[in-house]
C-alpha cells in the first residue's frame, strides 16, 4: 500500500463515526504492510479531514478529539 491508499482510507474514515481503537488497529495493519507507514501522519491527516468534513456539515462544537492520545496509545500498543 502507498501514501495514496492511506490518504483514501483517512478520507473515508473521516466521513464516518469511528472509534480511536479502530484507527489504532488500522494503523497496526498498515504498518505491517508498509514498514514506512507513519501512524502520526495518518492520524493528523484523518483529524484534519474529519474537522473539515464536520465544518462542511455545519456540526458546530463536535470536532474530533483524536490526536495525541491516539498516537500515544498506538505507540504503547506497538511496544507490547
Please provide a written account of the structure.
There is one protein chain. The protein has 80 residues and is mainly α. Helices cover 70% and strands 0% of the residues. Helix 1 (3-14) packs parallel to helix 3. The longest helix is centred in the middle third of the chain and has 18 residues, at 39-56.
Mean pLDDT: 81
Q: Structural class of the helix and strand makeup? A: mainly alpha
Low-confidence stretches: 59-64
Helix percentage range? over 70%
> Can you summarize the main beta sheet?
none
Number of helices: 4
Please write out the topology.
Elements: H1 3-14, H2 20-33, H3 39-56, H4 68-79
Helix pairs in contact: 1-3, 2-4
What features would you highlight for this structure?
0% strand; single chain; 80 residues; mainly alpha; 4 helices
Concise synopsis of the structure shown:
The protein is mainly alpha-helical and 80 residues long. It is built from 4 helices and no strands.
